[in-house]
Design goal:
The structure holds 2 protein chains of 2 kinds.
Chain A lengths: L15 E6 L2 E6 L4 H7 L6 E2 L6 E2 L12 E4 L2 E5 L10 E3 L9
Chain B lengths: L5 E4 L3 H12 L4 E4 L28 H13 L5 E4 L2 E6 L5 E5 L2 E5 L3 E4 L3 E3 L12 E3 H10 L7 E5 L3 H12 L3 E7 L8 H9 L4 E3 L1 E7 L6 E6 L12 E4 L2 E4 L3 E3 L2 H6 L3 E4 L4 E4 L12 E3 L9 H18 L7 H15 L6 H8 L4
Parallel strand pairs in B: 1-2, 1-7, 2-3, 7-20, 9-16, 10-11, 10-16, 11-12
Antiparallel strand pairs in B: 4-5, 5-6, 8-17, 13-14, 14-15, 18-19
Classes of the chains: A mainly beta, B alpha/beta.
Chain lengths: 101, 359
């Protein structure tokens, strides 16, 4: 859910863009973090733990903790809490640890 | 290889003030910031600052960024700003490595000021990894910077200043705050913040901690329980609260990886948030020409981070021969401001912590 009215802040948003998350189409604002766009659309589960498969969301939202790693445009281990959304981005749940190359 | 006299790692309140002071002194400064804008965590701080006028008291954090960047701009012939740039290594031979837009660079400055800040601590309880359990600062970023609500309602763990301030700001954003809890028997933050929240009808439950988090794919409910005077949980005191967000605000730990890597002498000082570097009064670490400023040297408020930044900037510049005519007065002024900020009962913990560090 997005904040529509705020007593102190006004939010400068970029143009609306489309992106896909695990094959499904979503909308967000250009330049906002991927995690913010997903959260606004109700997606909290960004991945699963390697060994026990437990659901994972973000924790710090500023690029410190690596709880939010996903595959973005084919590149694994992207911290989606700080990676900015662009038109047509392909965001996928990461399985495993991701390859270096 | 990039050439610069002073490299500053981190463009938050400490790094910005370090850059201003060093550049004003006449040093060539490179400021490296991993975000796409300067200001660090000031960008989400909608509350007005405390302290005195010199630390921008009664100005909102979000507005202090503009004041500092404008001041920095006065010395732009001495300053290079690198945004979207992360320092990823700091080596014993004085070389640092930087990644910017997938490019890898090396730099060998004559002095370094590390102002990397701190990261949020975590709390141990069953299911603490469920989505919906977030750092208080994370939720503040989501709501105040990106305009997205973290959920429908929250329970805040921690009644220190961050827990209190973020709870209030979430209410401003339209979220129901169901309770603020703290394991300590007393509210840790300023009572002026706590009173404001109590007046809005939110309970602040001291002597409580989290027993269990419930939910399948994301948080649905938390079970709290009361602690006795020996901090042991009391069976039978459990309370369930339905909530989709639990905020953890139990302190910060310094982001000191670079200091470890380069071999600074470190000490574990719980009062300052964890492992912190030993340093002299000028904020120079055990490695000559490596300075620290702000939370990386011990977790405090942004107000003291800004003053430490100025102090480190002045002193690093002086070491390289760039001495302001009123250097002595400016240095004394910084030390005086830090003393004031750390005075009284509120600063007792910080004073105790720093005693163990300063040589």
């Amino acid at each position: 859910m997005r904040i529509e009215e705020h007593p102190i802040l006004s939010f400068k948003k970029g143009p609306k863009v489309k992106f896909t998350f695990d094959g499904q189409q979503y909308e967000g604002y250009e330049g906002e973090p991927i995690a913010a766009a997903l959260h606004a659309a109700g997606v909290k589960v960004l991945g699963h733990s390697h060994n026990l498969g437990r659901p994972r969301g973000f924790y710090c939202a500023i690029g410190n903790c690596s709880s939010c790693l996903m595959v973005v445009d084919g590149k694994p281990n992207v911290r989606v809490c700080v990676e900015k959304l662009t038109e047509g981005m392909i965001v996928e749940t990461q399985k495993g640890k991701g390859d270096l190359v | 290889m990039i050439n610069t006299e002073i490299l500053i790692v981190g463009g938050g309140p400490a790094g910005l003030c370090a850059a201003i002071a060093a550049a004003e002194s006449g040093a060539k400064v490179t400021l490296v910031e991993r975000n796409d804008s300067l200001g660090g965590q000031l960008e989400k701080q909608t509350h007005m600052f405390f302290g005195s006028q010199k630390q921008y008291a009664s100005i909102r954090g979000i507005d202090i960024v503009g004041i500092l960047t404008k001041e920095l701009d006065k010395y732009n012939e001495n300053v290079t700003i690198m945004l979207n740039a992360t320092v990823i290594g700091m080596y014993e031979d004085g070389i640092l490595t930087i990644e910017q837009n997938d490019k890898y660079m090396k730099v060998k400055p004559q002095a370094i000021i590390v102002a990397t800040g701190a990261s949020e601590k975590f709390l141990t309880f069953p299911n603490n990894d469920l989505p919906g359990i977030y750092g208080a600062g994370a939720v503040q970023t989501l709501a105040n910077v990106h305009g997205v609500l973290p959920g429908k309602s929250i329970v805040m763990v921690g009644a220190g200043n961050i827990g209190l301030i973020v709870s209030y700001q979430l209410m401003q954003a339209g979220i129901k705050v169901k309770a603020i809890i703290d394991a300590a028997p007393k509210i840790g933050g300023y009572l002026v913040h706590a009173s404001k929240i109590r007046r809005m009808g939110v309970p602040i439950m001291t002597g409580y901690t989290v027993k269990y988090a419930h939910g399948k794919d994301a948080l649905e409910k938390v079970t709290l329980w009361k602690l006795d005077d020996k901090w042991q949980p009391i069976p039978g005191s459990e309370i369930d609260i339905d909530t989709d967000v639990l905020c953890i605000s139990v302190g910060l730990s310094p982001l000191a990886e670079l200091l470890w890597q380069v071999g600074c002498e470190m000490k574990f000082v719980p009062e300052l948030g964890g492992h912190v570097p030993t340093r002299n009064e000028d904020l120079e670490t055990s490695i000559p020409n490596v300075f620290v400023a702000g939370d990386v040297g011990g977790v405090e408020e942004a107000s003291s981070a800004m003053v430490e930044g100025r102090l480190a900037g002045l002193c690093a510049a002086k070491k390289l021969g760039h001495v302001l005519p009123d250097y002595k007065e400016q240095r004394e002024d910084c030390l005086g401001q830090l003393n004031d900020l750390r005075s009284g009962p509120v600063g007792e913990k910080i004073r105790k912590g720093l005693e163990q560090l300063i040589s």
